[in-house]
Amino acid sequence: MLSLMKQILFLFLLAVAVAPPPAVNGQLKIGFYNQTCPSAESVVQKTVAAASANNTGILAGLIRLFFHDCFVRGCDSSVLLDSTANNTAEKDAPPNHPSLRGFEVIDAAKSAVEAICPNTVSPTTAPCADIVAFAARDAAALSGNISYQIPSGRRDGNISLASDANANLPSPLSNASTLITAFAAKNLTADELVTLSGAHSIGVSHCSSFRNRLYNFSSSSQGDPTLNPAYAALLRFACPFNSTSSGNTTVAMDVLTPVVLDNFYYIGLKMSLGLFTSDHALLTQGNLSAAVDDNAWNPAGWAAKFARAMVKMGSIQVKTGTQGEIRRNCRVVNGRSLANVGPAAEEQGSSLVADM
Ligand code: HEM
Ligand SMILES: *[C@@H]1O[C@H](CO)[C@@H](O)[C@H](O)[C@H]1NC(C)=O
Ligand SMILES: *[C@@H]1O[C@H](CO)[C@@H](O)[C@H](O)[C@H]1NC(C)=O
Ligand SMILES: *[C@@H]1O[C@H](CO)[C@@H](O)[C@H](O)[C@H]1NC(C)=O
Ligand SMILES: *[C@@H]1O[C@H](CO)[C@@H](O)[C@H](O)[C@H]1NC(C)=O
Ligand SMILES: *[C@@H]1O[C@H](CO)[C@@H](O)[C@H](O)[C@H]1NC(C)=O
Ligand SMILES: *[C@@H]1O[C@H](CO)[C@@H](O)[C@H](O)[C@H]1NC(C)=O
Ligand SMILES: *[C@@H]1O[C@H](CO)[C@@H](O)[C@H](O)[C@H]1NC(C)=O
Ligand SMILES: *[C@@H]1O[C@H](CO)[C@@H](O)[C@H](O)[C@H]1NC(C)=O
Ligand SMILES: *[C@@H]1O[C@H](CO)[C@@H](O)[C@H](O)[C@H]1NC(C)=O
Ligand SMILES: *[C@@H]1O[C@H](CO)[C@@H](O)[C@H](O)[C@H]1NC(C)=O
Ligand SMILES: *[C@@H]1O[C@H](CO)[C@@H](O)[C@H](O)[C@H]1NC(C)=O
């Protein structure tokens, strides 16, 4: 008995010993810019709405941009940094290049925010990381009428490595256990994996991401037998076997409702219309496919879960308080080592003060 208590005490002390130090940095808050820049969120929203009026597809791009930012070094806008002479950045890694889009929209939103709330000695502007999160939220509202508030206060990172993108972003060839592991590594549950995959209800994919299912699939089958045959024929037509011209070809990911962010992704999955091996994988494991069923039958329930999961994804490894920096140009770190990279660098002196 005594020894059991000792063990419990020991485990307790161990837990205390390995517990992280108390957070010295702030938490994300809804309305973080209420005082410093009250129009920040509405200015981003207007920029996203204008970009969407020009090109609807950009909404899908912005939602994916948020996912790819948060899964690599946390939601710190590292995905926006350009490669330099001695560094290949995340955005140039195969999972992002050339398919990831929306960078110009974030640049425009950042400029619009800076125009009303400058990044001076006492910066009032929003870091790029929050702008990415706001833009994804606005894109979900515009493409799916899914509205939610997103807490803010994220700061920008200054490291962006292509190797991190390759290591953290799941491949479209993934099976169920690989997907679950990739999401668990970001503290997202298997249910949240299924919920967030519903984003594949909008947007497009290049042929390279699903070609594995069309040709030379296995020794016994030219195509993936779990892909709807009529759909497979359509995809083969769009993406011919040895055509050199299909490199830029894209197809809608949800053939049922391609431009509306809704639960038809799950209905499509059940009809073997999921585009990627990774989409179909959600039907191959009991728990996941039960969640697919729930979402297929309950559009409002899925939309509510999607909003919650986007907020949770937006909290992955965030930098807050005095961590990180507030970039002035979302493509370039403010730091000294990259001083010779354009107009943003000229005001570096004040930015170093501002970043304290
Ligand atoms: C579960 C693991 C996931 C895998 C393996 C995956 C993979 C992919 C791939 C390969 C593409 C097409 C890229 C191309 O070839 O053009 C794509 C597109 C897209 N993904 Fe995912 N994805 C996953 C999860 C997510 C999540 C969690 C979100 C957001 C919440 C998301 C949002 C999107 C969107 C909106 C597009 C369309 C982008 C556009 O039209 O520009 N994906 N995804
Ligand atoms: C900002 O204002 C909104 C609306 O009044 C409120 O819900 C939110 O808590 C405020 N946030 C902060 C950090 O003051
Ligand atoms: C409009 O969209 C096209 C691509 O569809 C893009 O090339 C162009 O820069 C966009 N214009 C504006 C003002 O956003
Ligand atoms: C990148 O190269 C520049 C000039 O060639 C150098 O000043 C800088 O320190 C290098 N940065 C890193 C991270 O190696
Ligand atoms: C959008 O959702 C709200 C409730 O969240 C609803 O009242 C409204 O009718 C919806 N709008 C459209 C166009 O579906
Ligand atoms: C899933 O894929 C991983 C990586 O390719 C592989 O190691 C694993 O055996 C696969 N699991 C199943 C159940 O097929
Ligand atoms: C996941 O949660 C654990 C425990 O709260 C934490 O230590 C870890 O940093 C989190 N990981 C991510 C990627 O957020
Ligand atoms: C299919 O794959 C096999 C094994 O990788 C290869 O030998 C064969 O040439 C491929 N066939 C076609 C049509 O690409
Ligand atoms: C595609 O490749 C196959 C096998 O190498 C060849 O038989 C066929 O003629 C090629 N088709 C075209 C359109 O080039
Ligand atoms: C794909 O698009 C890029 C950029 O617009 C262009 O340089 C390239 O030639 C295109 N490739 C093909 C195969 O059409
Ligand atoms: C299935 O879901 C239950 C309840 O959410 C969970 O306890 C269990 O670990 C899950 N099993 C797998 C294999 O994911
Ligand atoms: C990145 O930020 C860290 C911590 O704030 C700092 O030590 C480092 O010098 C910065 N690097 C660059 C290239 O700005």
Structure description:
With 356 residues, this protein is mainly alpha-helical. The protein is built from 14 helices and 2 strands, in the order ααααααααβαβααααα. It has a two-stranded antiparallel ribbon. The termini are far apart. Mean pLDDT is 89; it is low at 8-24 and 336-356. The structure holds protoporphyrin IX containing FE (HEM) and 2-acetamido-2-deoxy-beta-D-glucopyranose (NAG) (11 copies). One 2-acetamido-2-deoxy-beta-D-glucopyranose (NAG) binds at residues 175, 177-178. One 2-acetamido-2-deoxy-beta-D-glucopyranose (NAG) is lined by residues 241-242.
Keywords:
356 residues, single chain, binds 2-acetamido-2-deoxy-beta-D-glucopyranose, mainly alpha, 2 strands, globular, two-stranded antiparallel sheet
